[in-house]
Amino acid sequence: MAPKSKVAKTSSASSPATAPFKAGFAVEVSSDDDGFRGSWFTGKIIRRLANDQLLIEYDNLMADESGKKRLREVLKLHQLRPVPPEETGREFKFGDEVDAYHNDGWWEGHVTEECGNGRFAVYFRVSREQIVFQKDELRLHREWFNENWVPPFEKQQQQQEPEKVLLTPNVKSAETVMPDMKSAQTVAPNVKPDEIVNEEERFRVGTPVEVSSDEEGFQGAWFSATVVQVIRKGKFLVEYESLLADDGSQLLREEVDSHHIRPHPPQTVVNGHFSLLEEVDAFHNDGWWVGMVSEVLDNSRYIVYFRSSSEELEFQHSQLRKHQDWIDGKWIMPSKVDKAEQSHDEPAEMVNNQENMLRRGSRARFTSQILKDFVRE
User: Fold this and answer.
1) Is 191 helix (H, G, I), strand (E, B) or coil?
2) pLDDT of 9 strictly over 50
3) How many domains does the chain have?
4) Can you spell out the DSSP letters for 207-245?
5) CATH number of the domain to which 34 belongs
6) For residues 133 and 121, what is the distance between their CA atoms, to the nearest angstrom?
7) What would the pLDDT profile of 180-228 be if each residue is shown by its tens digit?
8) Rounded distance, CA 42 to CA 23, Å?
9) What tens digit of pLDDT does each residue of 120-138 get?
10) 173-212 b/e with 16+ CB inside 10 Å = b?
11) What predicted TM-score, i.e. pTM, was given to this entire model?
């Protein structure tokens, strides 16, 4: 893959530097290592070090195969967040963005099927796998953004002490937490035999497609291309529309597998504007990058937060589209959290007034205008 610029860094991104991360504080830890993106593991802070670094000890990851000593690591502040309050009585439905407890960590995905008896199929974007989970193995996905949970918890839950450590069986070594999706229970696509279309028929020569990459700094981005050759089953040669080869003399051609190619998503109708917290794709540096609307500005402009880089950028309405995922030959659009469940105490009229104020051009930050009304210390 030819070099492509990452999303530009801004100063308004989420900063945990002011969070009360002291010795003994229970945290969840993220990792940028291959195979671990999109996951969070519980641990506690042993002590703070210089240069915004902390020594943490994992709850369930062991330092060696003997399983007698917990793994310790030195991590940066941006890799940590508090343990979210436990949420009870949560009901899940198709399209919900969730965290699923798997291999001793919480992995980000979204519900693609309600299987009955309290079981749900969850699709993981990073591994492009689908696994069935029990209801008690799921939680609603939330981001720790400007020292608040997005979407916010109900007030009575937010007031609970968040320093609760999840108690789960220990594992033998750190290596065993690598996501072994193939050994997990997977769910077959819910497709009738006459609806099945193989990849070679779907992605014929000349088909316009979008291509993703697992390279560092490119997760969550899709680039337009055209299929120029079907090499073999599950392998295609594509030519990018905007990316150039290293010498800059011609368009880049690259061999990709079926896990990194999809059709162009269908156009979706946006009713006037995108909403706060809505998941979108933003066109930037010749590709579509998945993000979340963190502020609605005037003149059809938006601030979009990119989870993969913890950064924000401003976009025009025409540079955004609704986010969709290509799963089992179908386009799936994640559902949005109903505002009514974000707070049972705030009247709908007040919520609507807040959104209208932002759409009329208020420059007040997202967290100060929306989150502070739902989440109070």
Assistant:
1) coil
2) no
3) 2
4) -EEEEE--STT-TTEEEEEEEEEEEETTEEEEEEEEEEP
5) 2.30.30.30
6) 6
7) 444 344 444 444 443 445 777 789 898 999 999 888 888 889 999 999 9
8) 15
9) 999 988 788 899 999 999 9
10) ebeebebebeeeeebebeeeeeeeeeeeeebeeebebbbb
11) 0.50
Q: How far apart are CA 239 and CA 250, in angstroms?
A: 10
In this structure, the chain runs to a length of 377
**109: β partners:** 98
Q: Please, which pLDDT band fits residue 145 given cuts at 50, 70 and 90?
A: confident
In a domain, 109, yes or no: no
Distance, CA of 243 to CA of 225 (rounded, Å): 9
Asked whether 99 and 143 are in contact (CB, 8 A), the reply is no
Final residue of a domain: which of 222, 245, 263?
A: 263
Q: What's the domain range around 205?
A: 194-263
Q: Is the model's pLDDT at 304 over the cut of 90?
A: yes
Residue where a domain stops, chosen among 237, 263, 289: 263
- C-beta of residue 60 within 8 angstroms of C-beta of residue 79: no
Are 128 and 259 contacting, i.e. CB atoms less than 8 angstroms apart? yes
Is residue 14 within 8 A of residue 145, CB to CB? The reply is: yes
Q: Which two tokens stand for residue 221?
A: 């981005």
Give every CB contact of residue 165 below 8 A, 6+ residues apart in sequence.
26, 42, 44, 59, 83
Domain with residue 259: its CATH number is 2.30.30.140
